[in-house]
Amino acid sequence: MLHDSRRVIVDIKGVAKHYGDGEARVDALRNLDLTVHAGEVVALLGPSGSGKTTLLNIIGCIIDPSKGQVSLDGEMVYDNRWLRGDLRRLRLDKVGFIFQAHNLLPFLNATDNVALVLQLAGKTAAEAQARAQELLEYLEVGHRARAMPALLSGGEAQRVAIARALANGPRIILADEPTAALDSKRAGIVMDLLRKLAAEQDACIIAVTHDEKILDRFDRLFHLRDGRLEDDEGERT
Amino acid sequence: MNLAFRDVRHNLFRFLLTCLGLGLLMTVVLAMMGIYNGLVADALNIVKAPQADLWVVEAGTQGPFAEASNIPGDTRDAVARLHGVAQAGSITYQTIEAPFEGGALRLYVIGYERGRLGGPQTIAQGRGLQASHFELVADAKTGLTPGDTLMLGRNRFTVVGLVRDTMNSGGDPAVFLTLADAQVLQTQLAPPAARVQAARGGSVNDGATVAAVIARLDPSVDAQSVAHTVRQWKHLSALTQAEQEDILIRSVVDKARKQIGLFLGILLTVSAVVIALIIYTMTMEKLKQIATLKLIGAPDRVIIGLIVQQSVALGVVGLTLGLALIMAVKDYFPRRVMLEPVNALALTGIILVVCVLASGLGVRAALKVDPATALGG
Lengths: 237, 377
Fold this sequence. Notes:
Chain A has six helices and ten strands; from the N terminus they run βββαββαβαααβαβββ. With 237 residues, chain A is an alpha/beta fold.
């Protein structure tokens, strides 16, 4: 493991998630362990229904695990201390999301899409606008700051979405098929950008992907099969 | 950052189109309110116009507006001699149809004695009656103008002046004739069957009767005491002005009020359902965006605000369009559409409540959205 000496950002131990009971019970995740360090970019691979999204949802504080421990940036979540509003706040402060289809709000321009997250976190409108512009410049889409999402190219929209994910300086960036809507050249550019961000922001990136062209850009690959996790050497975690 | 405003601005054409639809609905609601007000005002205008304190009518009847009342033509002299009566005048009312320019005008004919109570209070155009015969003053809603002539019964009358907002509770515009002309008209318009009966020796309206005698009292005199005196004449009855207005409201306008009130209730219910459906549909179309908002950490109040603010904006803009539209077209209605500021205020309050309640359906749907749906499956 290349990053063991660095700070642990995501630490999952014995996490399981099941839906339904009795004969209708479906085990989405079974006793799963996962540790991701600052600066790491890891991929979750697996067939549809293998539990990738469930795992992403648990790390993103969207659904509770049925059992096990989850620590995000040193905070133990899903114990009795956490209320729904607290989890929302934790998600706002520590987690950034990058979606398959960018999911920018169509009625806000590029800057406002980014500034919204900052304002939700308590920044003033002026501060949020300034920081959003700064992030867009950093991601080389500053010239499209006033453009509405419908007028952005796929690559530009994904960069704006990445800027939004980075807005509050999250320690964890969860990406759901971040390159699925891009051609191989742009997919490579986005992955290089994510790697750069992970290193510079001291954050970890966990991406669900099926895109084989970009697998060499990840530090580690995890395969989910029947709710169990195997690393890229086939070792079950 | 106001998300509701941004979303509206992004889909402005669609929003305005929806508001226009709602505005048309509001126009109908306001029109119904205005028609009701107009109905009451018109009905009361006729009663209030003579500025009388006392109505002397046929015994056992409730006055000329609720049912037929016929009293001898010389009753006015007797009433005028009563203690406390300052002025008195005879008056007749009847509804007729008169041919005019190839069509028929339905008119509410008021006959009064020139120089006495019962005539038009304000002449809007032209002049009042000066000749003893064959002149008339008409309400502007008749479409007549000074100088026009028309046949009433067997005689041709000339329009010499116009008044405004004078019509009966059925919406028929009034024309004022001299009492003598109005009495002749009553005889001439009697159906042939009545004449046959007259030939057989039956009773017939000989034109010497009037519908009522109206009286203005000295300020120091109690109207009820004069009314009591009149009632002692067994063939007459008397109503104070307040009683006459009350009878008119209860017997003539009440059914129309209930009818229109019920219709208003249905319209407001339809409006509420329409607003609820619009807001619900708008919310359902935004579920992915709402899921994204939740995922990036937006609290529920931001999402509720987005829906409720749009709902209220829809209602307010729709109501404003409705108000503008009704103000633009109200004068083209055949009946008076009378809108008071209190109506607009009341409807604004109702629409705001309806919008907030209607948005509940959308809010419920939005709050149930799982933020996980923003992520792929």
